[in-house]
Amino acid sequence: MRPADYRTPTIGIDSAEHVAKLLxxxxxxxxxxxxxxxxxxxxxxxRYIITAFVFLALGGIEALIMRLQLxxxxxxxxxxxxxxxxxxxxxxTMIFLYASPILSGFSNYLWPLLLGSRDMAFPRLNALxxxxxxxxxxxxxxxxxxGNGPNDGWFNYVPYASRDYNPGLNEDFYSLGMxxxxxxxxxxxxxxxxxxxRTRAPGMSINRLPIMVWGTxxxxxxxxxxxxxxxxxxxxxxxxxxxxxxxxxxSGGGQPLLWQHLFWIFGHPWVYAIVLPAMGMVSDGLPxxxxxxxxxxxxxxxxxxxTMILGFGVWVHHxxxxxxxxxxxxxxxxxxxxxTVPSAxxxxxxxxxxxxxxxxxxxxxxxxxxxxxLFVIGGVSGFMTASVPVDWQLTDTYFVVAHLHYxxxxxxxxxxxxxxxxxxxxxxxxxxxxxLGRWNFWxxxxxxxxxxxxxxxxxxxGMPRRVYTYAEGMGWDTLNLITSIGSFVFAIGVLxxxxxxxxxxxxxxIAGANPWDAPTLEWSVSSxxxxxxxxxxxxxxxxHPLWEQRLDEGGAVxxxxxxxxxxxxxxxxxxxxLDAEPDMVLEMPGDSLAPLLLALGISILFVGLxxxxxxxxxxxxxxxxxxxxxxxxxxxxLREREPARA
Amino acid sequence: xxxLGYLDAAGTRAQTILPLTWFTLAxxxxxxxxxxxxxxxxxxxxxxxxxxxxxxxxxxxxDSGLKWISVGLLISAAPLLLTLIWTMVALAAVSGxxxxxxxxxxxxxxxxxxxxxxxxxxxxxxFTTANEIHIPVGVPVLVRLxxxxxxxxxxxPKLSGKTDVIPxxxxxxxxxxxxxxxxxxxxxxxxxxxHAYMGFEVVAESRVDFERWxxxxxxxxxxxxxxxxxxxxxxxxxxxxxxHQVRGTDAHAVSAPDLTHLMSRRTIAAGRLLxxxxxxxxxxxxxxxxxxxxxxxxxxxSSQQLSDAQAYLELLE
Lengths: 646, 317
Hints:
The complex is a heterodimer of chains A (646) and B (317).
Chain A: E1 2-3, E2 11-13, H1 16-26, H2 31-37, H3 41-69, H4 80-115, H5 123-145, H6 170-198, H7 211-243, H8 256-273, H9 276-290, H10 297-311, H11 326-338, H12 340-356, E3 360-361, H13 363-386, H14 388-394, H15 398-428, H16 434-460, H17 477-507, E4 537-539, H18 548-551, E5 559-564, E6 571-575, E7 582-587, H19 594-611, H20 614-632
Antiparallel strand pairs in A: 1-7, 2-5, 4-5, 6-7
Helix pairs in contact in A: 3-4, 3-5, 3-17, 4-5, 4-6, 4-15, 5-6, 5-19, 6-7, 6-19, 7-8, 7-9, 7-10, 9-12, 9-13, 9-15, 10-12, 12-13, 13-15, 13-16, 15-16, 16-17, 19-20
Chain B: H1 12-44, E1 47-48, H2 51-56, H3 66-95, E2 103-110, E3 113-119, E4 127-130, E5 132-136, E6 141-147, E7 152-156, E8 160-165, E9 171-175, E10 181-186, E11 199-205, H4 207-218, H5 227-238, E12 267-268, E13 273-274, H6 277-285, H7 287-290, H8 303-313
Parallel strand pairs in B: 2-6, 5-11
Antiparallel strand pairs in B: 2-3, 3-4, 6-9, 7-8, 10-11, 12-13
């Protein structure tokens, strides 16, 4: 992204000639080369979504195997070692390889369309983020498939993760894989932040952003701040293991609790990072089916940011039992209770939107509205653990397992599947089947609650977490059997979603540009959108450009069919951060193999580090350097070689 | 009820927390019910349909709805504030270790068993046992927690919440039983293969019973009487003695539970099995089958050796 020149873009209206010109400029190459070099945010977004769902399926299968083992007391389907690798890999998969990337996928696909832009601010960085995600996912799973998966939980506490107690490659795969994946998260976050602040349509001032943009923006800012902490922690662990640095080793003067601080200062904000964008999906999707604007837009937007800020100050609630002094605990306990307030704002806003609107039940609506209840259940159980003395009993029992699944499935997966029903027509041009959708929803909803609602009781009856089996006579047998049955019902529900997608991709009813009569910019373009998104850069005058004739939002009129043409190159408009005043013409890079090559180089580098074969590491570094050189080589069409003169 | 459940309590510390647990639980259930009912009533007004129905329903600005947020927050403030205050009060009441403990224990958590050391200013009252903790009723007991390897967590739900056992630092926990009884304890932090079965028992008993037990524990192992016991003792010394201790014999190692008074304990294998002759023999023969991955290797004894060893071990009352 570079300022081209300070010319005044031509204003005009759409025409066949104009569209043909744009197509020539924006259409990706066909075939394999086009596939590997694409920097189109829609293409990358879809890849993120598909890859994340593949990981969801893998993590789900792992969960089902564990639920078979736990269906009754003292079963021996799995050895303790297999169980430990399974539960660790399940956590890693769902938290790092599904929950966050799926939201990146939706945001990648949707953001430029929501914002009235032709692509993300840094398209090549966007492609790099995806390739690194895939490569690090394969890296992490290579460990699991060779019997070297993580075996100390996703939280990976030392000293169990240290070489003394964990001599295999398991923890090396996990440590390096997490540093590797951190690159993807970091570049993605930087891209989202700049995109949100600099590439909105003229007139889309900061108070007109869709809430999902607020969610992802907030999450991205948090990621930029906290991912370095966890990358550092994993790097230190790897150095402890391979070079005897003793950062975490008490016998060498190190400190096991240091790991927990570094991990949770990342881990807790991360939980918000993987739910805030999904809450945004609900805030944007639900009102469409309630046929009115969201209640309390400003409060919901502010509460999104407030949640994150408070979220930085609650990490110690994962460590209440570690023997920290009471004074410190009481501060974090208070912060953890207070953080329910901004969440409550969102809940009341959603409820009011349903009550004050004219709701129409669609499958998407069912997923979005049921999420409110699941969110509250996951929220209040979190509130219970915020109280230190209560947490001393609750922590590390199945109560917390129930809590975190209500949070992650309730606030991430349910909105995501709802978003699938809502935005699939935009992505594919076809509707998902509504009838199958109802089956999909009810199977997921009932299966999920059957599995996880009784699990609170399992926890209150004292069943500890992360156990490969349990004794009979503890009062847990029936509850565990119910949970196992529920988890299979739930899995069938998720499968129905995949079936619906597969069935409707080619065979669904034709959607048209705006099947739901929704108010935001993505619905103003065809389904699926053309490669350049908007033939004319829209000018936005309200929060609901497609509803404004009906809503009377101050009589403002957005201009969607007359505006900047920007067709003298691959261009989009850069706008000012708060008011979205047009600022500069942005020259966008074309398709490029450099991101893939760079990801490949970094992958080789990490394989070299893992096996400690230094020539391989050097080779990987060299490939990466070459890719960077290609990437950064100045190009005339990006106005990087000489001053722009007409 | 369930042995590890914490919705009932038998000790001061757990008892102090219990009403707060019930209070927050009740508030939580109530909130879920209110939201669930509001949601149900709201959605009940909805018309069923799909895209067509959605499109054909008119869009309206409607009421701003901000009252929902302000009233909602006002109502939520009361239970939140109450919980906050109650939490601080309860925390102050249960967090600090007792100033004048009636008994002080040094508990060391190992993969995957508990070493229990009874500290005393009288050297003659100091001894070590494993996996079964006896305490007198009505007396605050200070527990100093030491980590031998990885992180574990000390938890006796009926008496006290969890305190992690972290190598390199000494964490303090305490408990006070109000009624005599056997209370189950469990490691609550993931610690590897046998985390699931890293259990123990706390036996709360009257002062008299406790002292009788302590006096018995202080004694060394009795000498063997029969020929089988003598052979068994030799076997135990050179085989089991590599890891275990039997005070009064040549078995001095301390990397596994002290066996001096093995037969006084109700369970073996860190709470996994009841301590009876069949289980004991089964455990000696195949510990890896019963608790895969645990630190005790299978012994491959002849049936003669096994019965000798058992004859001796059963002497260790």
